[in-house]
Amino acid sequence: MMVSKERPPISAEKRAQMLEKSLAVFVERGYVGASTDELAAAASVSKQTLYRAFGDKEGLFEALIRTECDRVYDPFAPLVEEMRDVESAEAAIRRLAEQSARLIMSQRVQQLRRLVIAEATRFPALGELYWERGFVRVSASLAQCLTVLDERRLLRVPQPALSAQQLAGMLLWIPSNRTMFAGIAQPMSAGELADVIDAGVAAFVRAHR
Amino acid sequence: MMVSKERPPISAEKRAQMLEKSLAVFVERGYVGASTDELAAAASVSKQTLYRAFGDKEGLFEALIRTECDRVYDPFAPLVEEMRDVESAEAAIRRLAEQSARLIMSQRVQQLRRLVIAEATRFPALGELYWERGFVRVSASLAQCLTVLDERRLLRVPQPALSAQQLAGMLLWIPSNRTMFAGIAQPMSAGELADVIDAGVAAFVRAHR
User: Which residues belong to any copy of the HTH tetR-type domain (chains A, B) (predicted)?
Assistant: First the structure.
């Protein structure tokens, strides 16, 4: 009787562990410099297991982008319902602003962002995936939230897609660029980020009264 | 009589030529992959000339960052005077917005931006230089312009530094991220950028009436 060559499928837990641990290796070595040996070792799995789960390094990186984009997007989806009950425009925009800043300024997202920007010329499909699965979906969620606030007459938002992008940009342009460029030496403090959020909320609400 | 070993100094023109041509090589090869052989060949100079002018590859890249940051910043400086004569808040903000979008969304700036972001972990000094010489100075210029508009009572801008960052973010967040991530496949059209500018000007003016 032949021994079956079928191997047990990779568990979701092991897959998640490989994804979780891969980011630090990519950050440390760069995408090109990270070897599948190191990526497997970081997750305490064999290289074979890594190949079975993701095909190759690009497959692992693509799965990492999907996972991290979902981690940012998923908490936005329920906000649309929240907007139907929120009491004031100020409270609504503050909720959207704080959630955006907290999720998008997280260290993991900023690290992944740097990696994808670095590789988007060589691997345009990875940049496009990040754009479509990250930016486009979060922007659409914010725009839906603003549409609800417009329908409830709490704010006037005739161009919700553009206004959603403005809100994100007002909040994130400086904190995000600071992380990308000067962040290693001068991270933005929680107090500075709170000032950016306060000012952004106030300006956005005034612009849409 | 000994032949003098002194060589003629590198002309400003030749220096500028090396800087001008280096960006395409860095974009093509990545910072790490670009060799001084290729960088010298691209500018039709000897490797010795390149070393004499910039010391090494990092010196050349640093000089490139300085030059490109100045190219963006220099046209902002005269805007403060313009703000003293501009007729309306709308015209003033449109002038600032169009100048910001045109300069910062230029292909050279966006290419350099990607390169610096990719290397800022390994070479933090380059990221900090870009931040200080690019962002900080342009933000300060915009803030000065807004202060003039506040003094002239065309707008109310009690926090000019934060408002300057908001204006830049409203205009640049989406176009810039689109270039960084999806830009290779889906560049933003002139018409789409014009819509972003129109909406940004209108929202900023309403927020600061």
Answer: 12-72
